[in-house]
Amino acid sequence: MLSVRGVTETNSLRSLGAALLIVLLIGGIAFYRYAQLPKFVDVSAKVSLWRRDNYGSATLNAVSFTLTPESLGDRDNVSLRWAAGEGNLTSSAHWKIVIIANESASGNVIWDHEIRPNTDKAGEYEGVVSTSLYLKGTFTIWVVLSSIQNGVWVAEPSFSQRIITY
Amino acid sequence: MEAKRSIGLIRVNPSKIEKSIVAIANSCPASWGWLVFGVDNESFDLVGAMSGLRPEAVTTEDKETCKQRFSQIASKTRPPISYEWLELQCRDQDVIIIRISGRREGEFFQTSQGAAFYRLDDDTYVAEQSQIRRWLGEPELAEQTSSPVGTALAIYIILCLVGLSWAVLWVLDPLQAYQRTIWTLLGLGTIILIAAHLMQWKVENMAAWCKEKSPVLLLAAISFVPAALMLQLSLSFYPMLSGLYFTTHLSDALSTLLKAILLIIAGGVVLHLPGLSLAHAKLGILSWIPNHSKLVKKAAVASLIIGLAATSIVPLDSYFVLGTPKVGLVESKYVTDDTAYLYHIELTKFGTYVKNQETIHFLPPVVLLVRQVWYSLPSNCSVEPPKLILQNEVSATLDTDVSDGRLHGLWISISGDGSSNLVTAVTYCTELNVSSVAAITFSAERTVETLSNGTRRVQQTFQVVNLSPYRLNIGFTRLFYSTGYFEEATNVTRGRADVWYDKDSRWICLAGELREDGSVTITVLYNAVS
Lengths: 166, 530
Hints:
The complex is a heterodimer.
Chain A: H1 2-36, E1 40-52, E2 55-68, E3 75-76, E4 79-83, E5 95-101, E6 106-107, E7 110-115, E8 123-133, E9 135-136, E10 138-149, E11 152-155, E12 159-165
Antiparallel strand pairs in A: 1-2, 1-8, 3-8, 4-8, 5-7, 5-10, 6-9, 10-11, 10-12
Chain B: E1 2-4, H1 9-12, H2 14-27, E2 32-37, H3 60-76, E3 83-90, E4 93-101, E5 117-120, E6 123-126, H4 129-136, H5 146-172, H6 177-198, H7 203-222, H8 225-235, H9 238-242, H10 253-272, H11 278-286, H12 288-291, H13 293-320, E7 326-333, E8 339-346, E9 349-363, E10 372-376, E11 387-392, E12 394-400, E13 407-414, E14 422-432, H14 434-437, E15 438-442, E16 446-450, E17 455-466, E18 471-481, E19 486-502, E20 507-529
Parallel strand pairs in B: 1-2, 8-18
Antiparallel strand pairs in B: 2-4, 3-4, 5-6, 7-9, 8-9, 9-14, 10-13, 11-14, 12-13, 15-17, 16-17, 17-20, 18-20, 19-20
């Protein structure tokens, strides 16, 4: 009887070990696959900006969405396209971009960023401002661009779109 | 050896004990068989004899009662079974061992009901005529064995091979299943014949082996039934989980499996027919499940595991995007050009629509098993045909209504290896309720003056007010029918309107565009025949 019990216990241990190995293997593969799946919505806004003295204006040219597995962070590559007044005019005006999703979205529903070029020249600026947001569900997203004019934020025509993520 | 925990079985279930001792006695020719109480029948661990179902030590009185009852059971078998009743103490546990004399050559045991059982491995079977003849040492009847058994075996093998290979090949490719089944049958049949010849297998032995294994095969096939059912149910959740529809032949897995099982059952019946009397058949059918209880339990466990696996295929595939593409992100842009369109249907009947755009981003699967999928995009408008404006790494086709061209959805074929950035975009129109977009007034014609030549001067007014937050595009509209001279006054606020007379059709026509809150009022004075 003892030998039978011993064999039974060894077999049970082997089965348990094999089951554990299979669970670990499947779990590992599942985790690896999960890490590869896109979870972030990368929003890129192409903007045209203009400023002179303490006055600015802005235009939202296009907004695009892509899915990414991980956050690509905030990117701002707005640069001077042409300087006003042969490059000797300066301006303190700047711009702000706000991305808002309505409350039916789960995740980070608001993001804002101030666009401050690394030069104080007046003139026209152009570029793309992007960010990766963790957003899930069915929701409406707004991209609002505003410029500071005489110390007051003024919103420019904004963009909105309905989004569904699975 | 047969192990049981409770000695109470002798009192509670004497027919089971009778069946067990007959089976043990028939299976140990010229030797001893053992029936042990106090040992777990699964693990063979020493647990001590119990009197009932609860783990209570058995009393001396219980032992005596059971011993007497066992004696009665053993004396009822035909012929009565000889045995020895031994009571032991092992590691402070009661163990009762019954040593049963096996059958002698040329004889066999039957229960009081006349059934001759025997054991093979852990299972108990009813002995058939051929088996009893072998026990009795009688020559097997040629007409009952070789020819019918050989034919039955051949039919069984053919039916099983056809059923199983067809089911497996159907899962892989239903279009090729019939053709490939014939070749598989020929191949496997040849292999079996060559193996039988080389290994010198006898027909009787092969038939006996097949009979022994036929319940295993049948239960193995049956254990897939809940899995097929759950798979069918699971597949219906695909659109909800992945946003895409696709058709798969696996939806019919249940009917295919049932056909295969029917073939296996038919084969099994044919296999058991030779030498089977009506009484044996009846007994065999009634005792089929009790005789195969362990096998049925194993099949139930296997069925549960396979069923769970089949149920989890769709959620796992949808969640981890394993073999089927999935919709990752949908961008829906309503009123893409900020314009609502007003169009004239007939007389005073108008319609309105707006243009929308839907951009669909797909997630590519790990292994592209499903290449063509359908995305639901129903439109209630057929005024403007839908248009594909973007296709990246996918080939999309519009699925429109044959009669009126309305959009139902998109057929998407993943081209290439479907590695990344699978996107398609489509523009389509959506019909809106006219009253939510514009207020349209057609005043009834009013006679201003009756002329001497039999005609009269008629005045009519048409007004459109834009109620929508968008621009309102007024399409070509036939306002009033006039045979000749007319005077027209147009009053437009926040927009523009073109009014003209079409000489060919003799209609006063309108086209224009109004901004938000804009309106147009057209008053026409024209000659009409009385």
